[in-house]
Amino acid sequence: MEREVTLYEILEVSPHASAQVIRAAYRCLAQCNHPDKNPGSAAASERQAQINFAYGVLSDPSKRRRYDQRMGAQQESDIERRGSDLATPAHSKAMDDAPPVSRAFVFRPFK
Predict the structure, then answer these.
(1) Residue 58 is part of a domain; what is its CATH number?
(2) HSE (CB half, 13 Å, CA atoms) of 43?
(3) Which domain, by its residues, includes 36?
(4) Taking the complete model, does pTM exceed 0.90, yes or no?
(5) Tens of pLDDT, residues 44-59
(6) I need a surface site. Which of 29, 51, 93, 111 has the fewest CB within 10 A?
């Protein structure tokens, strides 16, 4: 059984990312995957739809809170069903296995 991709993974951000980081990631990914920049590409259109949906949920504080609560409950039930191998957060495993992402910029904390 394959694990569901999280909205954070779609936007390529941490679950602890601030609203500013989520917005910047959305803008970057939306620009790269926009159908006008990839004419005729069904994959780009599908990816853009996923990016838009993820941003719609994660940019609204109440929707994000509900999503995080639902994902936390789902992870807890996965741990109970499959054992302690999922005790580490799913996003850390996914980030370890993910290929490096090339972007025009890097998120840096404000100083």
Answers:
(1) 1.10.287.110
(2) 1
(3) 7-90
(4) no
(5) 888 999 999 999 999 9
(6) 111
